[in-house]
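Cont'd.
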Amino acid sequence: MKKTIEQSTPRYGRRFALLGLLFAAVFLLSFILGRYSVPLGTTLRILWARLAALCTFGRAVVAQTWTETEGAVVLNIRLPRILCAVLVGAALSTAGASYQGMFRNPMVSPDLMGASTGAGFGAALAILLGAGYWGITLTAFCFGLAAVALAYLVSRFSRLNATLALVLAGVMISSLFSACTSFVKLVADTQDQLPAITYWLMGSLSSVKAEDTAFAAVPILIGLIPLVLLRWRINLLTVSEAEARSLGLRSGRLRLTVILAATLVTSASVSVSGMIGWVGLVIPHFCRMLFGYDYRRLIPASILMGGTFLLLVDDLARIVTSSEIPLGILTSFVGAPVFVWLILQGGADRER
Amino acid sequence: MSVEVKGVSFSYGSVDVLHDVSFSAGPGDLMAVLGPNGVGKSTLFGCLLGYLRPRTGQVLLGGRDVQTLSGAEIAREIAYIPQSAPVTYNYTVLDTVLMGVTHQIGIFSAPKQKHIDKAMAALESLGIAHLAQRGAQKISGGERQLALLARALVQDARVLLMDEPTANLDYGNSFRVMQRIQALGGAGYTVIFSTHEPNQAFRYANRVLALSGGCVAADGRPDAVLTGELLSELYGVGVAVQSAQAGGEQFRVSIPFEKEARP
């Protein structure tokens, strides 16, 4: 009996290994792409030196065989941007996967609850008020959280079914904030504010610096940890509340934890990268096709695949044209055809 | 007694739904809950599962008031099997069954090999072990109902509460599912199921609880208490109860007819 089960279980371990290899390859490739070329060997030595110094609190010193410029390009420009792309991609797709499970709806994206539109409005407002880079990021982050908090509060006072109330409140708050953003665009100075807002809203990592990556990394990691730890339990949010309850689960607390974590990572991502659609909606579907529906595999797969995908797209943004194409546009350009292909294939789901 | 309901009344605001409902059920009982739509079957189930608090009276599970038990303690006593409905996500049957171990593992852990073995044993006992790796969207409604039944078995509760176990199932699947349920009653589970079909009470149950207007209209052996008059009163249509033979056994059957045309 056991044997037949094992035989019919897809080889998830091998698929994870392949995905991990792909991630590593894209990660390394990303360092050597760009107008200023640094050979892979040099890049690896620079990274190794930094890693060794970090791990031994600066005591280990690797002999420097590279120029100052090469070191600066790798450590100050490429590394932060690469890490940021990985973090944002992982965050958006994991948040999307969690939201889709929680709302029992595969068409839900992490901006359902208003995190992205809230952050977008925050950024637009900050640009309108002439805030600097930090002001924009911070305002975006705060408004993203505030939008979701507002949607959650509204739903708490509703007498509808909790999930439906959350969705409706989220859609309502979301449209309110996008109307606010439109208003800000209307009154913004068309010479430089309006293009800045529009560009920000389309999403980009081109101006990401080490501090931004550090700023986003803290909330993203804080949000991802509970999602990873609770990943099997998230499965239980996909069944009806009466069922979950009869299985002995207090779904209210789990639901709130997942909302908080997913919102935190979404707001943090949007505040550094601008609005990047698509990733949070579609990457979880890729992952389900390859790794099945169990969140035990879906969450790690979303982290890996989301990170790999956004990194790849950001690489394209860097090399395709001399003036960078916004990520929000490219994610759809790259992702949509692949997704269409996967739909036509029927995915790994076909035989089950 | 695994389940004791003592004088339970329940109202939504000023609308009385249940009025002084009392009954008890123990191992081997296979109890059909009958009654017209809106009579309070779901409300009764909510009270049994502890998520609705009766206005008066109490529900005892294994001798303890359900309102004083934690979610995990309730899950150890009573398992709920919802109607078979299409699922949003294509979880495998095995994954679905494994959700039954929720109350047995810590919040950060996932089912282990011993839980998988247990789930496979439950699937085997219901005759659907070969479906373990199939997606829940790719099996029939009857098979899905059996998978939910397996999940309840894995939960280790001795009381199985089923909301219309054969809703949306075709004739043959209904029979197969009900046979499995009957076998569980024989194996010492306390089974309580709601149904709209009096013939199911006659055919499978050894107890029937008929609800009318939020009150218990009858409680006893189906053959003894389910009379044409009672069914007629419950559903507002004429009902004739007759005897029939099938597979060498005697069964009672009910047939509805238009009231005015009564002979």
